[in-house]
Amino acid sequence: MEKSPRIGCTKDELDTPALCIDLGAMESNIRAMAAACKSHGVDWRPHAKCHKSPVIGRMLIEAGAIGLTCAKLGEAEVMAAGGIGDLLIANYIVGRKKIARLVELRRVADPIVCIDHAVQAEPIGAAMQQAGLQLRVLIEVDIGLHRAGVLPGAPALELAQKIVATGGLLLAGVMGYEGHLLTLSDPREKARQIHAALEQVVETKHLLEASDIACPIVSCGGTGSYEITLTHEGVNELQAGGAIFMDVFYRRKCNVQSLQYALTVLTTVVSTPAPLRAIIDAGRKTLNTEIAVPEVVGRADVSVESLSAEHGTLRLSPGAKPLRIGDRLELIPGYGDLTIVLHDEMYGLRGGRLERVIEVEGRGKIR
Ligand SMILES: Cc1ncc(COP(=O)(O)O)c(C=O)c1O
């Protein structure tokens, strides 16, 4: 197997394609997010689905995060093995094998799992009870994303009553994700619709409490909306995670201007078959264009035209400074989340030198 590059080598010495982190920029983003949460009295539980690394997870905790959010049980297992105990799995655990793993995870960590139907809750509660354990759960409320989630109000209350009556489970609160509203272009309308969506989660909490059901956690928010979500009265946990890297999607489509780009893909020009076309060694197995098209750092005159599996096609605008075979370019990922999972390692650079190699330990942990 190919060896990792030598610590201390320069960026120019990295072979390409290489997924690079500007550590200074990432640390600045982490500090900014932690400070924003603190100033609004909201606990930060950043989503780890973007970095999938307990090394970065621990940096987040050291910066003030109360725990992490994970998308999969396997991701949470990786984080727990890396010493992080407070883990919200913002997803559903269904099936005997997974429930057995969840029991084992509960022995070493304090996970929280989402529920939107009593059918998920019953076997988990029974398994926890049999093991002499108790598991925290959150009710996911559908606030318009129309992905998963019980409807707010009475259906959520009915589910809460069933959870409270299920041994082995502790109802820890409610969550809702406003993911359908991130790209609204009019800032006022975006804020209005996000507040209206989030209010459904907060109202659900009040409804539960009016029935004497404790509901301490109200968890919402992604990077594309965090500035608004943090200001919503009643939301007390924020899940935004990709913010630590930023990307084209967050900047251009969600209009998040407050954070720095920290993640790039370093590539080499391998062919220049036509005057205004250049081919780089980064295609779909290195980058993706699905959510947003990557941008070339410092070259507004060069754009990503298309990606095939292992070739990236760049288009030069007329009059652009030519690209030559062997030139190296850095691209800002369109969506960091779907880019990082394509890589085994991330190269953490400071002052143009490799400071640390960060393994994407949760890569492939889709179960
Ligand atoms: C449940 C949930 N919370 C939060 C987020 C936002 O994550 P991020 O801040 O990394 O964009 C997502 C993104 O898909 C999500 O599914």
Describe the protein's architecture and organization:
- By secondary structure, the protein is α/β, with parallel strands linked by helices.
- The protein folds into 2 domains: 11-18 and 259-359, Lyase, Ornithine Decarboxylase, Chain A, domain 1 (Beta Barrel), CATH 2.40.37.20; 23-245, TIM Barrel, CATH 3.20.20.10.
- The chain has 10 helices and 17 strands.
- Strands 1, 10, 11, 12, 13, 14, 15, 16 and 17 form a 9-stranded mixed sheet that branches. An 8-stranded parallel sheet has the order 2-9-8-7-6-5-4-3.
- Helix 7 (187-210) links the parallel strand 7 and strand 8.
- Helix 3 packs parallel to helix 4 (96-108) and helix 4 (96-108) packs across helix 5 (118-130).
- The longest helix is centred in the middle third of the chain and has 24 residues, at 187-210.
- It is globular.
- Residues 47, 50, 90, 177, 179, 222-223, 239-243, 337 line the site of pyridoxal-5'-phosphate.
- Pyridoxal-5'-phosphate binds at residues 47, 50, 90, 177, 179, 222-223, 239-243, 337.
